[in-house]
Hints:
Elements: E1 7-9, E2 12-14, E3 18-31, E4 35-42, E5 46-52, E6 71-77, E7 83-92, H1 96-99, H2 101-117, H3 125-140, H4 144-158, E8 180-183, E9 188-190, E10 202-204, H5 206-217, H6 220-223, H7 230-248, H8 253-267
Parallel strand pairs: 5-7
Antiparallel strand pairs: 1-2, 3-4, 3-6, 4-5, 6-7, 8-9, 8-10
Helix pairs in contact: 2-3, 2-4, 2-8, 3-4, 4-7, 5-7
Amino acid sequence: MFIFGALINSGNMHRARTYRTEAVILRRLEYGEADRILTLFTPDLGKLRVLAKGIRRPASRKAGHLELFTRTDLFLARGREMDLVTQAATLEAFRPLREDLYRTSCASYAVELLDKFTQDQDDNRPLYELLVSILGWLGESPDPALSLRYYELQLLALVGYRPELQRCVRRKEPIRAEDQFFSAAGGGVICPTCGPETPAALPISMAALKMLRHLQRTSYAEATAARVRPLVQAELERVTQHYITYLLERRLKSVEFLRLVRHGANAE
């Protein structure tokens, strides 16, 4: 399905000069007078930074295939500092993400979240498939915020930070059906006995905790079929953002933009 250059000569592995992969465009940076540096996420090569020469010229044939969020089939040539894009063909454009500012801001958050949790050339096919899925879901979902909560929990599991939502992370005992606390440092839920003694632990209602569990363990279709009250939605976002900010030691730039866009839409 994918073509990767690899030639064996005298027992040593040598990379071919060209190779092919599909990828999603995560970021782009203007470079020189007409070029762009693209950050890609691929299914088998992980995250790559490549150079698209001449892409900003009006006559460029590759420009339309290398837009943000686009899933693209690429041919690349090895370069000294960065590999070069030689051919590109769109596989999925995810056009609804470009036609609605709120959905655009949701997609920006989704790709930034993946970008910050991944290292260059660290392959993770399930994570790539999740990225492609969320871009499709965000274009169609009647509740993009709930789709993002599902995506966050699935991404955290794939990168090794799955929060514990069944047992108190201090006492290791099953959680009872009552309001609890959440500890980012502890990596999960804290019982009411331990919560007040745990620094920076957030209160979390049983309704929100049940929804987090539902999002964590079910399929996307099942998870997003639920109707979630606005107060619970806000609580879900507060808890997941608290945990993600702790793990990354920073707040993502796209988070504030997403909130501004959402508040602007609600005000209209």
